[in-house]
Write a structure and sequence with these properties.
CATH superfamily of the largest domain: Class I glutamine amidotransferase (GATase) domain
CATH topology of the largest domain: Rossmann fold
Strand content: 15-25%
Distance between the termini: 73 Å
Number of domains: 2
CATH class of the largest domain: Alpha Beta
Number of helices: 16
Strand order of the largest sheet: 16-13-12-17-18-24-23-25
Radius of gyration: 28 Å
Shape: elongated
């Protein structure tokens, strides 16, 4: 029999009025997986404590006893793969404080400072340790909204109001789910609503140990060696199809300048080039001519092919969804707690931008689908602006700049600025047919663009700024620091060149193109 958890230790927190059947499930089921279960609790300075069980006629007819010799204040949490807090009265008893100065001003602080709550806070701080909280156990976390806000949980209905007030997202299992299967998993946190689901909780904890949750949102960017004089560019790509030249054009310029380039997509899936952007024979209806040279088409096909050296660069892009948090709905019943959690996570996410020098948003029809109205994209852009770092955008990627707004001010970040972008004369009238699915191409005609980008940019820049389409001119790139915007496909190489001049020109470029 395989024992996938061989060598792992599991801490199970108990107190009096525990449920014997639940504890036996932990001991026997984890042992069957090869793990060692250690009972822990508060021993009040003693070498051991005996705890009595609950008595429930028909379930537990007589008291049982557990002797515990490990105080959770004396253990090194790094020795444990998981911490389980048992159901019933364990959490109630462990929230008790001997302090006599309890009053309305310090009640929350007292509840957060009891040894059991402090022990769980330490465990929650380490995502490598899986936390299993059964039934009422979330009561040890509810005094600390910073630990529960935004976390998906299930619990005994007795504690539901406290859990919701702490900012957690109560997530009941689908109707018809058997009671013994009602478990909710949120990254390193596993909860159930009754000891009857103890076996399912053990299995979910086991699965999380064997398949650890993704790294926290604020650690998605791998640490890579970058020489002190080496620039680092973050390129954001749609998962629904980018225009090939609008990637390889500026990318080639960055490579020639010796810059390091990292790629990012909304959910971490590999991006795909729009098929016609790899076709030198494609006849562009608005321009009435082909728009992709044979040389450029070959470069795009190379980077779109995951078997080539260039193509492998797009493997494993950074996931924006794992990096930046999602803002809660305004109508959420725990909006204030959720917003506090969102803002804390946002600060952590922005720390990862310190190693990047600039952001480039690649265009094409795909950004219409998953970038333009993506709140995480807006937050990424705002983070670069707060750090006073350049932001480049091409074609329909420029829409992201128009819609990126501080949640309180609601004014476009390009208000008073000069930009370019896909002009009305270049818009399609009878369908783009360019959108690619996430993973494979679809012959999907999404129709003409759902909005005229030129009109959006004219309105977003306001009376003191301006939109410059430069229709009839071969290229159109506008630099109005910190923004570098390119109109469409022919402007891609020039966009990359101007970003380099903004970063390393002598003097650095701050205005160009109008």
């Amino acid at each position: 029999m395989t024992q996938p958890l061989a060598g792992k230790k599991i801490a199970v927190v108990v107190e009096s009025q525990y449920i014997p059947g639940e504890i036996r499930i932990y001991q026997e089921r984890f042992a069957a997986h090869g793990a060692e279960v250690e009972l822990v609790s508060r021993l009040w300075g003693q070498s051991s404590q005996r705890f009595y069980s609950t008595v429930e006629p028909g379930v537990v007819d007589a008291l049982e006893w557990l002797e515990v010799t490990t105080d959770f204040d004396d253990i090194d949490l790094e020795d444990y793969a998981a911490v389980i807090v048992s159901a019933n009265y364990t959490s109630v008893r462990l929230r008790w404080s001997e302090r006599e100065d309890l009053n309305t001003d310090n009640a929350a602080e007292v509840a957060r400072s009891v040894p059991a709550a402090d022990f769980l806070r330490r465990a929650m701080a380490d995502p490598r340790i899986i936390k299993g909280l059964a039934c009422h156990a979330l009561w040890l976390l509810t005094p600390s909204p910073d630990l529960l806000a935004g976390r998906k949980v299930i619990c005994n209905k007795v504690g539901l109001a406290d859990v919701i007030n702490a900012g957690a997202l109560y997530t009941p299992c689908p109707p018809g789910t058997p009671a013994e299967q009602q478990v909710v998993v949120d990254r390193d946190l596993v909860t159930n609503n009754s000891w009857h689901a103890s076996a399912a909780l053990v299995d979910a904890v086991k699965d999380r140990i064997l398949d650890p949750p993704p790294a926290p949102r604020y650690e998605p960017v791998p640490a890579v060696p970058v020489t002190p004089d080496q620039r680092r560019i973050l390129i954001l790509l749609s998962e629904w199809g980018y225009w090939g030249e609008e990637l390889v054009g500026p990318l080639g310029e960055f490579d020639r300048a010796g810059y390091r380039v990292d790629f990012c997509t909304p959910t971490g899936k590999r991006p795909n080039a729009i098929p016609v952007s790899m076709d030198p024979d494609f006849f562009d209806p608005p321009l009435q001519r082909p728009v992709t040279t044979a040389q450029m088409a070959a470069l795009v096909r190379e980077i779109d092919d995951p078997t080539t050296e260039q193509g492998r660069r797009l493997d494993g892009p950074i996931s924006l969804a794992d990096w930046f948090p999602e803002r809660p709905y305004f109508a959420a019943p725990t909006f204030v707690r959720g917003l506090e959690a969102y803002n804390r996570q946002l600060v952590e996410a922005e720390r990862e931008l310190e190693s990047f020098d600039a952001l480039l948003i690649v265009g094409g029809s795909g950004p219409i689908v998953d970038l333009a109205n993506n709140q995480r994209v807006h937050d990424l852009i705002l983070a670069f602006l707060r750090a006073d770092k350049p932001v480049g955008a091409e074609c329909y990627g420029v829409t992201c700049l128009a819609f990126a707004r501080d949640m309180n001010l609601r004014e476009s970040i390009i208000w008073g600025k000069h930009v370019t972008g896909h002009c009305l004369e270049y818009d399609y009238q009878d369908g783009t047919a360019f959108v690619a699915s996430r993973g494979r191409f679809l012959d999907f005609n999404m129709g003409p663009p759902p909005y005229p980008l030129e009109f959006i940019l004219r309105d977003a820049t306001g009376p003191e700024g301006g939109y410059h389409g430069n229709f009839g001119h071969p290229t159109s790139v506008i630099v109005d620091y910190p923004f570098i915007t390119g109109r469409s496909t022919p402007d891609s190489i020039l966009t990359g060149q101007k970003m380099i001049e903004v970063l390393d020109g002598d003097p650095p470029l701050r205005r160009w193109g109008w």
